[in-house]
């Protein structure tokens, strides 16, 4: 399929309604998942193919995707996630939202867990170099993770952006054989949605969070 777009010849032939619908309704899906229905590896590969069209600093393509579909690796990661959630809850001295607890409880049953990794370690330096390096490092991987969520959503698959298991990243690396010079980022639990109603979230309007020509200034 030729998906190239010529620019400068008028509006591209893109179905804006569908594109915006996917962008506006890619919600966290934690409970409304068909736990019995496996996710085809071809579909996951297709989504990862789409995700790797994301921007990549110095064209390094340092992304690596670790897809877990077998019970044992899923169980290990789910246990680490649950332990992290418990520490998080204890540290905040509060309750965890029902949906978040529900995800944790059934994480090992998710048809697939995708761990989005990045070759290399987050750079450390002093400001302002550190800021540029950190933004470059994470900016070369997190857009791909979001593209992956969008591609999944467009194919009827639900997922959730999670990072809690990273509290136990070292244990996860040991269990999954992830090399020391690879950084784990987002963990996406993935499955076909079941009875999920995905609608735009209530977010502050663009005008409230956008400044023009100087911080705090309104659109002319
Ligand atoms: C940086 C980041 C970390 C997150 N970590 C978790 C997590 O560990 N577990 C979880 O259930 N949700 C996690 N979320 C999902 C947010 O809770 C969710 O995006 C938010 O509640 C808004 O809901 P929506 O995704 O349906 O719009 C995370 C989201 C972000 C951006």
Query: What's the tally of helices?
Result: 7
Low-confidence stretches: none
Q: Return the average pLDDT rounded to an integer.
A: 95
Oligomer: single chain
Order of helices and strands: HHEHHEHHEHE
| Biggest sheet overview | 4 strands, antiparallel
Report what the structure shows.
This protein has 7 helices and 4 strands, in the order ααβααβααβαβ. It is α+β, with helices and mostly antiparallel strands. It has a single domain, classed as NADH Oxidase (3-Layer(aba) Sandwich), CATH 3.40.109. It has a 4-stranded antiparallel sheet with strand order 1-2-4-3. α2 crosses α6, α3 runs antiparallel to α4 and α3 (71-92) runs antiparallel to α7. The longest helix is centred in the middle third of the chain and has 22 residues, at 71-92. The chain is globular and about 55 Å long. It starts with 15 loop residues before the first helix and ends in a 28-residue tail after the last strand. The structure holds flavin mononucleotide. The site of flavin mononucleotide has 10 residues, from α4.
């Amino acid at each position: 399929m030729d998906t190239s777009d010529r620019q400068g010849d008028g509006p591209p032939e893109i179905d804006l309604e569908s594109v915006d619908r996917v962008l506006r309704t890619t919600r966290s899906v934690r409970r409304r998942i068909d736990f019995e229905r496996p996710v085809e590896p071809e579909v996951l590969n297709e989504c990862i193919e789409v995700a790797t069209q994301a921007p990549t600093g110095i064209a390094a393509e340092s992304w690596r995707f670790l897809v877990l579909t077998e019970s044992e690796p899923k169980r290990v990661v789910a246990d680490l996630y649950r332990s992290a959630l418990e520490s998080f809850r204890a540290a905040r001295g509060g309750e965890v939202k029902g949906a978040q607890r529900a995800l944790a409880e059934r994480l090992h049953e998710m048809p697939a867990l995708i761990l989005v990794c990045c070759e290399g370690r987050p750079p450390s330096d002093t400001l302002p170099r550190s800021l540029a390096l950190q933004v470059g490092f994470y900016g070369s991987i997190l857009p791909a993770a979001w593209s992956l969520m969008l591609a999944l959503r467009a194919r009827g698959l639900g997922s959730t952006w999670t990072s809690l298991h990273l509290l136990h990243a070292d244990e996860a690396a040991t269990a999954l054989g992830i090399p020391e010079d690879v950084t784990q980022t987002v963990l996406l639990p993935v499955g076909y949605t079941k009875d999920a109603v995905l609608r735009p979230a209530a977010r502050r309007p663009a005008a409230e969070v956008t400044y023009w020509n100087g911080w705090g200034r309104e659109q002319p």
